Amino acid sequence: MTDDTLTPDQIQAIRDRVADLMPQVRADLEALVRIPSVSAASFDQSQVARSAEAVAELLRREGLDVDVVTEGGRPAVIGHVAGPEGSPTVTLYAHHDVQPPGEEADWDSAPFEPQERDGRLYGRGAADDKAGVMAHVAALRAHAGNLPVGVTVFVEGEEESGSPSLGTILEKHGDRLAADAIVIADSGNWAVGTPALTTTLRGGIRVVVRVQTLDHSVHSGMFGGAAPDAVTALVRLLASLHDDDGNVTVDGLDAGEAADIDYDEARFREESGLLDGVSLIGSGSILSRLWTKPSITTIGIDATSIDKASNTLSAKAAAKISMRLAPTQDPLAAFDRLREHLEANAPWGARVTVELEEHGSGFAADAEGPVYDEARASFADAWGIDPVDMGVGGSIPFISDFSARFPDASIIVTGVEDPDTRAHGANESLHLGEFEKVCAAEAIFLARLGALRA
Ligand code: BES
Ligand code: MN
Questions:
Q1: Does residue 158 have its Cβ closer than 6 Å to ligand 1?
Q2: What is the pLDDT of residues 154-187, one digit of tens each?
Q3: What is the rounded distance in angstroms from the CA atom of residue 243 to the CA atom of residue 282?
Q4: All domains of the chain, ordered by start, with CATH?
């Protein structure tokens, strides 16, 4: 391949065009945020259909040939526009569904009413991942009428629900998603002012563990002291998952070391909101604890609530556990190790059953080659400094399905998030200055790929 590198003037022209486009891009983003497209089953799914239609319309206006496809799950949008003869094809991914807003009272402005404060746009999905959708639209607009590459846009509607029908979508429509490069705009950058390519993500499993100690609940005065209650047994079982330092005690799991990037405890405390006096858990570098080692979190417990409590030994209790896995870990093998641990550590012979609810693979990119070179150069063009390779502790499970289906495509994971984004939390927000750079980098990346000729 030869690299007909863009001139500095061409790059500046793209940056200027993107700057001019931003007011409309932002208005379109706000319109998307106003649609409460929560894919979780207990929410109104007609809103997810509305957001799919809104995304489809944005793409149609850019001249793409667009379909909304539903394969047993939530609607996804697939659009395509051909590039110049012989040019590569790029598939651009984002998701239009969002997480539930949580407690509205925890928000400083209504979750589905976008509001700007101090250079950030607040709202559920303002970053994760409607800004990812709009970054793709912005890149298309920057090249309107003169696209340097073929582009396929794939905007999924159920990423926040674990992409249950993605396998079927890939089976039925996968041929339309084939590309030389796949840009997944669903991660973020290292810090405001410092771009990053996400080169590893953790995998994960979600498990429900149920504990039973008695045939039926009984009087705590008559039987307490000799019979174990299920809640206490469950709590002891959960406690067995970490050692005193907070390292995961489940045997036989993959764990690696993260790249040696500067990240100190003070920054972690600040970004995570850790309270003074509460210590970190685990050992090794903080980034390896977050990116390349397994972690275990109890995300829900079923037990008698305090207001319904009586002097009773509970017969049953249950917990939901979310486990994050090293990027290379086979999630089903990790589930087997966790199940063995829970069964082997059942306190006082309690009956323990373990059910796998969800599993997803991690990802470790082969972050080399001409496409990665152009991606890094584009980030440097947009920010004025070179991007770092970072991991993230979160998961985008379908990336491994994409990479299995399109083994020759370079997968580039980008995104709009920064350490203050609070994706999934109250007061989720987008840094508008960084957002413009994300849009510019993607527009420049398409131009750079177009200049790469076989
Ligand atoms: N955008 C996130 C993934 C992510 C998290 C990227 C943190 C960068 C940093 C994505 O939308 C997400 O939340 N994924 C879920 C996957 C789950 C539903 C299978 C996650 O990580 O919990
Ligand atoms: Mn996301």
A1: no
A2: 999 999 998 999 999 999 999 999 999 999 999 9
A3: 9
A4: 2-201+362-453 (3.40.630.10), 203-255+294-360 (3.30.70.360)
